[in-house]
Predict the 3D structure of the following.
Amino acid sequence: MKTSGRVLAAKVNSIKEEALFAVRSDNLPIWCPGCGYFGIHQGLNQAIQQLGLPRHEVVVVSGIGCAGRYPFFSNTYGLHTVHGRTLPVATGVKLANPKLTVFAVGGDGDGLAIGGGHLPHIARRNFDVNYLLFDNSIYGLTKGQPSPSSPTGFKTKASPSGSFEAPLNASLLALAHGASFVARLFAGDPNGIADALMEGIRHPGYAIFHLLSTCLTFDKQFKTWENLKKWVHPLSANYDPTDYKAAMAHVLEDDFSTGILYRRDG
C-alpha cells in the first residue's frame, strides 16, 4: 500500500509539473464517466498549451448539447450560445477581433441538424475559425434519439425499430463544401487530436475537426469504445492531404481513418 501510495503521489506531482490541466477552469467537466469528450478536452487543452496561446486571446463558442457545456470547463473566454448557431457566433467573434484564436465546438445534432445550413457558408468564406464537431451519432443530452449521423437501423429508446434515415458524413460534407482544412480524429487519441489541432490552428483559414466519439450511456450498439477501437485506423504514411480528389475518394470509401484528410495550401 505504501509503495502504491508513493507511485500515485509521484504521478500527481508529475501531472502538476507538466501543467497538463493548466487550461482547465475550476469547474471540472461533468460529462458521464468514460465519455469521449474528456479525450477531446485534453487534446484541445494540450494544443492551446503547446502553442503557447495566451488564454485571454482564446475564445470557445458552443451551442446546445453535451458539447455545449465546454466553455465552462476551459480557462479561456467563452460563449454558450443557442442551438445550431455556434458557427455564426464564432464568425462574429472573429470578425470583431481578428487577433483572437476562435474555437467553435458542438455535437453532431447541433452542427449537422439545426446548424447544418451554416456549414457551407463558413467553408466558402474561409473564415479563420476552428470548428470541433463532436460526433457520437446520438443526441446524448436529450436521452438518446438518433442524430443526423446515426446509421440506418440504429436502435434507441426513441427508435426501437431502428432509424430509417441515411446518415450524414461530416467529413464528406466539409470536403464537398470546400473547407480548406479537414481532419478526422478519434476521441480516444488526445495526442493525435492535439497534433492535428496545432496544424489546423496555424492554417490561415477555416479548419474543421471531425471528432469520432462515443456515448457510452445511450449507445450500446454502434460507436462503442470496443467498436471504435477496432474500426479506427490512421491514414497511410504515403497519404497526400493536399490532393483534394484523393481526399474525396478516400472519404467516400472509408469512414474511420483518422488524420488530416485535406489541407489547401496557399
